[in-house]
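A reminder before we start the practical. When you read a complex entry, don't treat the lines as separate problems. The point of joint prediction is that each chain is placed relative to the others, so the output describes one connected object in space. Small molecules and nucleic acid strands, if listed, are placed in the same frame. In the example below there are two entries. Take a minute to note the order of the lines before looking further.
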Amino acid sequence: MIVYLLCSFLFVLGLYCLVAKKNIIKKIIGIITMEYSVNLFLVLVGYRARGIAPILSKGADKAEFIAKSVDPLPQALVLTAIVIGLGTIALMVAICIRLYERYGTFDMTEIRRLRG
Amino acid sequence: MNHILPLFVAVPLGTAFIILILAKVWRKAGVPFALLTSICLVIFSVSVIGQASIYRMGNWPPPWGIVLVLDGLSTLLLLTISVISFFALLFSIRYMDRYTAKPKFYALFMLLVAGMNGVVLSGDFFNLFVFLEIASIASYALVAFGCEEEELEASFKYLILSGVASTFILLGIAILYSLTGTLNMADVARTIGNMPANNAVLFAISMFLMGFGLKAALVPFHPWLPDAHPAAPAPISAMLSGVLIKALGMYVLIRLIFNVFGLSPFLSSVLMILGGLSMVVGGLLAIGQDDLKRLLAYSSISQIGYVAVGLALGTPLGIMGGLFHLINHATFKSLLFLSAGAIEYSTDTRKLSKMGGLSNRLPVTTTSAAIGFLSISGIPPLNGFWSKLIIIIALVQAGHYILASVAVLVSFLTILYFMRVQRHLFFGDLPAKLAKITEVPYLMRVSLVLLAIMCLAMGLLYPFLSGTILDPARDVILEGTAYVHRVFGV
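Here is the predicted structure of the whole assembly.
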């Protein structure tokens, strides 16, 4: 239970960082923290203490395999989610660099040309 | 098994890569390949009208394998996506002349289409998430395509908010998976149906409402839209406002609420409040805008509210009105954004206060824009009138008199702000600066005129449309969680 609480704490921490920080790089770090806490949650869903890898070898006992093996699906999902996160973050950082070139600052409160 | 289904995703995805590779040797590879793909997709989506089938990837049966599900609702969305993207591409051939890196534009455009088609066809949660991210990442890059200050700022805002939405969606999926042990939508629906009422399901639903509500730009989640849609190049604004917010936002919300969780009175009223707020707030904010594209973006928020209210009613007539307004909004809003792009192309400004008397100089553009304005304001025989009328009648029938009067008032509001636009576009004197402007290139005019004709035709041919594509879509929504039986093929 404590693990899930810590996981949700990580999520809220990321959200706080995203909302409260003015620096856009710190905002990106907040988003990354949030994403990773969700990934952690997905892994926790499939976690089993002292589990074995979900590969059924020849002659293995099926009942024992079912009782002990971890759920492989969340792991596959997390892998995909991490790759998608990487793509998004690369784009975010690229846009940040361009923003710095144009505005000369990372401060979100000074990057305010659009309003209304 | 219908072997055409994977092609909806595979063909544009493949074209995106082919364009980028070929662009090394042939600079102009983007236009022919993208257009050809787009025409193919229109043919595909016309050919699947009236069919309902599922495609099993690698022939694995549903709860284990990945399935693509085609039914009336997905067909409606597929048709909208392919037709609007064809017109946007036709428009972009000459419009994009002023930008560099055109092959990248067409490759990203194809990725956007592939992602949206995938979202619409996907039968399980995780694929939906992956396609959603493909479409979103392509749209972030396309919003920032101009690489000027405003584009970058808008794209960054959009990226951050949409990134948060994606995280919430993933969290919702994780919660549902931990609860049901499956990712297949139909299987999730079946498992939840057999469970007693559960707070975890409610939590997952609220995550989805927040995530997809943000993608659909319903009101508390809207602030990214008025920045992102005007900043993008005009064909992309048309795609984002015309299709993306519907395919990624409204469609998924409808599919989840009706077919997976089942419409409860609580969900219906939540969606109705969000929709009502969107109508009013979007309409009020649109009045004061001086930037033409920004005004159109706010009006998109207002119109998506109509769609949400109509669908949330859950009565056959309300759903019909919502769906009809959804495709109508796709046509007239893309027409309006493309006209705004055409006006910007010849006058180099989007400020209404700097325009005037354009109708003599740009007869075709302003006439088609006028048809768009009349249609969105709900002037009879045009399509916007019928769908708004249906929604209002459905609201009255269901006894929601307050919401019905709000809908009528907002439609007056719409006329009000478009009257203002008309005054600046048609009447008044031509500013000296704009004395030498000329009509936009031929291909852009063709795209505008065809869309304007579509607005008129969809209004006049409503009985035909309702028989071929709207009725099947409505039936899918009405069948609710019986969706399960169709996917498992019993």
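Discuss with your neighbour: Residues 377 and 411 of chain B are 6 Å apart (CA to CA). What might explain this?
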